[in-house]
Amino acid sequence: MLRHTVLLFILAVSFSNCAKKGSPTGGAKDTIAPQIVSSSPQNFATNFTETQIKIGFDEYIKLKNIKENLIISPPLTYDPLLSPQTSSRTLGIKIMDTLAPETTYVFNFGKSIVDNNEENPYDYFKYVFSTGSFIDSLTLSGAVYPADRPSLEDSATLLLYEATEPKQDSMVFKQRPRYVATTFDKTSEFNFSNLKPGAYYLVALQEDLNNYSFEPQTDLIGFLPDPITLPTDSSFVLRLFQETPDFKWTRASHSGKNRIVFGFQGAHEKYKITPLFEPPADFDFAWTKKPGVDSLNYWFKPAFDLEQSDTLYFKAQSPWSTDTLTLKLRDLYVDSLKVSLNNTSVILARDTIALSANTPIRRIDPEKIILINRDSVVLPFTTQIDTLNNTALLLTDKTDDELYRLNLLPGALFDFFEQTHDSLNFAFRTKPLSDYGTLKLTLEEPVNYPVIVELVDQNLNIVAHKWLAQNEIVYFDYIPPSKYRVRLIEDHNENKLWDTGHYLQQRQPEIIVYMPGILDIRANWSLNEVFPRTTGAK
């Protein structure tokens, strides 16, 4: 009995060791994309009349992000019904639309077809058929770039419209395109396939609604002004831009006892507001604008008597229209004068000291302003008033690595309503010059002058800029240590600003070219760089 027990124990240990040595590892991870094994009707079929398409795969598949991936060209009015909803070995397409005669259709699934387990994609599968007797085979390729950024961050949709005489500029608003394509993955490149010969207008969109219709308020657009004739071996480049809306008054609101806010959209250089009422003989008004806000403050005195009238009307004019704005008056408090320092606690020696107020600044009394340094030396200065931006400016010579204190006694500033402020104290300083870096930049010819040279940070905020009418060395100093890019803007209208494009006006955006590479600006360090020659193309 003991002998049998020992024998059984030895056998159990032996089997246990064998089991450990032979335990499964799970095998290699599946990295193979699903493969097509059948198609009904066959891909690239002609004289197509079916409404159902079935494509078989060698393993279970599912559709991932199908709305973002599937591109049908020419686009259909009604989306097809697609299956599987979960997983299956068969991709089903049910066409819900009436197909156009003698037309080649392309269903590009992008990266939406993946296997069920590891989600390996069947990249850019195209199902192509023709309702005519042959498959159109022409192609068109190119690239899309943002007009004001170094690279394309989101995919763009490319649209081809059949060219007509005269050109129908409303096509991007009202017509469905003849053909559709998208940029590839994270690149700027695009490719149309299976096109028929003819002349086409090429448009690029980054859409908010994905409806193949240009919405100027939300969408970016790029276009070629002249039609492309197919076949062609040329490659085409488009630049996407956001339009600046035409100027328009949007609203009027009574926001303070003596203040009306007029909202607007677009550039506000050309505006006019005229009261449609008879103001009192002693009536006076002033305008101010807060930077970065699409509204203007209309200040007035004396205040209106609500018992006589609670509604005012204004004629609001722009270069394109004249409207009437209605304003309901309210019983509100008076805005009292509040003064603040625009500058941060650390400024550059060349910066202008700026004081802003919430009510219009009208007078400065320099005798009640004291500016001293760390040694309590009183510094001389001159003053100016920027009426539109509502700032009081103090101009004085400052030095690096210094401490400053600014004291305003009551009566230093007076506003539109003859109000002043209490005693105010502000402190700020400048850093040593060694805390900053410098950049010396040479532009390699040819350059299409005039140009604006800008140094921008990683978020493309402008850090320094210079306008050039001709070739000269560009020198930027007081640059905080960080990483930067340099860009060049061809300023064709010489307004010293970058101007975007406008589709209906057939105006392209001014060209921006980014210097290759990132600049690493370090403290107490000088860089000498050459901006390589550019032909003016993106």
**Structural domain count:** 5
CATH architecture assignment of the largest domain: Sandwich
Q: In total, how many beta strands?
A: 41
Q: What's the CATH first level of the largest domain?
A: Mainly Beta
Helix content, binned percent? under 10%
| Through-space gap between termini | 93 Å
If you compute it from the alpha carbons, what radius of gyration comes out, rounded to the nearest whole angstrom? 34 Å
Question: What's the shape?
Answer: globular
Structural classification:
mainly beta
Percent strand equals: 35-45%
Mean pLDDT score, rounded?
A: 91
Low-confidence stretches: 1-24
Major sheet, described briefly? Answer: 5 strands, antiparallel
What is the CATH fold-level name of the largest domain?
Answer: Immunoglobulin-like
Counting DSSP H or I runs of 4 or more residues, the number of helices is: 3
